[in-house]
Design a protein that fits this description.
Layout: H1 7-27, H2 31-40, E1 48-51, E2 54-57, H3 58-87, H4 90-107, H5 116-139, H6 141-144, H7 147-177, H8 186-211, H9 226-242, H10 245-275, H11 280-308, H12 310-330, H13 334-362, H14 370-399, H15 402-408, H16 410-435
Helix pairs in contact: 1-5, 1-7, 1-8, 3-4, 3-5, 3-9, 3-14, 4-5, 4-8, 5-14, 7-8, 7-11, 7-13, 10-13, 10-14, 10-16, 11-12, 11-13, 12-13, 12-15, 12-16, 14-15
């Protein structure tokens, strides 16, 4: 087994975040949402689009597509991750999902108003590729870092991701801001950005693919049927999870607050474009600021967790997210949106990084089946995204306002906060008993 806390391995691991975060920034957060709203907005039809014969509000459709993509991943990952541990092949799965996501982004180069179905399918496949690769990436954390280093290593991954995505976003921003300089139109400059994301993603991903260990098989023999072996491995992990009191309490808390966090991050740009009519250039600049602030946020939360503990810090961050939802309902100006975006950036990186390392700390140490254990974490997150995105889209369709959708997200944050407080009390009692 490779020694933990190796600097070269950790840097290579973090480079996977550098590679795929460009998708998260350009496709889900900035250029694609603005491009999509621009080509589908039609006041005469109340911004409705026709997708395979069904009519949807344009932004609701994109949210439904994301929800469907994450539901597919939630259903597939428990099987795939258990197979990966059983056969020692999690790096292979990382490659497959990365290629799927990168090629789907390249496919978006051909997306326009006349190819709505094609574009939405590529949009969904890109989300599957991104989230599918991420679960195997996350599963390396306890394998490459000791518990005392996992908060810092997790923050390092997100930091690399933010920096890498900002670099490509700036390149794309130049094309979008001044397309005529490069012989492009506004629309074609956006399409070129989607192509660049796919190329960037697959190119830099080969750094971790070259250096990270491929994974060790967790089966004594390979005579079992592959699918059967995967299910057997998954069953073993589930039995262990049921006997971990802190992990059992943390997962439902993570599920609740993730419904709000992930949804806000995925719909923020669409909210600014549709509700406040912000131009694409302003949105891109805003999201860039969010990414830079998020770097500080991820490292700040890692430092605070050393002093106050992970759960207490997470609870405090969830309170801030509740305030964000309330503020989003009332904002009316661009300046207010920019200020709120800065707050979101500060807590966005922190809660993602700290959530991952907290889960990792609750796992048994030196286990070979890290992918199977992390499948529970990632499936929880993906189901949270499904619930959050579906609820956000449904409320918008029923009420005709994204503001109401934003306010509704409080319903997810409050129980998450209550469960975190309950976990903090339980953890404190266990520590007190151990000291006696």
């Amino acid at each position: 087994m490779q020694p933990k806390n190796d600097k070269k391995t950790i840097r290579a691991w973090a480079m996977f975040d550098w590679a795929n975060s460009a998708y998260n920034l350009v496709i889900t957060s900035t250029i694609f949402p603005a491009f999509y709203v621009a080509i589908t907005t039609n006041k005469a039809t109340h911004d409705e689009v026709v997708f395979f014969g069904k009519r949807f509000v344009n932004t609701a459709l994109s949210n439904y597509v994301l929800a469907a993509a994450y539901l597919v991943i939630a259903l597939l990952l428990p099987i795939l991750t258990s197979i990966a541990d059983y056969r020692g092949s999690k790096r292979i799965f990382m490659k497959c999902f990365t290629w799927l996501g990168a090629l789907a982004c390249c496919g978006l180069f051909f997306f326009n108003a006349d190819r709505l179905e094609f574009g939405m399918i590529c949009f969904g496949l890109a989300a599957i590729g991104y989230s599918g690769g991420f679960v195997f990436y996350n599963s390396y954390l306890p394998e490459i870092a000791t518990p005392d280093m996992q908060d810092a290593v997790s923050a390092k991954g997100f930091t690399y991701g933010y920096i890498g995505s900002v670099i490509l976003q700036v390149v794309c921003f130049v094309f979008v801001l001044s397309p005529k300089t490069f012989g492009l139109t506004g629309m074609s400059s956006a399409q070129l950005s989607f192509l660049l994301v796919g190329v960037w993603w697959i190119s830099f991903a080969y750094i971790p693919f070259t250096i990270l260990p491929k994974g060790s098989p967790n089966a004594q023999t390979h005579h079992k049927n592959l699918i059967k072996g995967g299910f057997i491995e998954l069953g073993k992990v589930w039995q262990q999870v049921k006997n971990m009191p802190l992990l059992k309490r943390y997962l439902p808390a993570f599920f609740c607050y993730s419904m709000g966090v992930q949804t806000i991050m995925l719909v923020a740009a669409g909210f600014g474009a549709k509700v406040l009519n912000l131009p694409a250039a302003n949105l891109i600049a805003t999201i860039l600021i969010i990414q830079l602030v998020a770097i500080a946020g991820a490292n700040l939360m890692a430092k605070l967790s050393e002093k106050y503990g992970n759960i207490l810090v997470l609870a405090g961050v969830v309170v801030i997210w509740i305030v964000v939802c309330i503020a989003a309902y009332f904002i009316t100006t661009a300046i207010q949106f920019y200020f709120l975006a800065a707050v979101v950036g500060l807590v966005m990186g922190g809660i993602q990084s700290l959530s991952r390392s907290t889960y990792s700390k609750y796992l048994p140490q030196n286990i070979p089946d890290t992918a199977s254990f992390f499948s529970f974490y990632d499936v929880t997150e993906k189901l949270a995204i499904v619930g959050g995105m579906f609820s956000f889209a449904l409320v918008e369709e029923l009420t005709g306002s994204m503001r109401n959708s934003a306010l509704t997200l409080i319903v997810f944050f409050v129980p998450g906060l209550v469960l975190l407080i309950s976990l903090y009390i339980k953890e404190s009692r266990i520590k007190s008993q151990e000291l006696r």
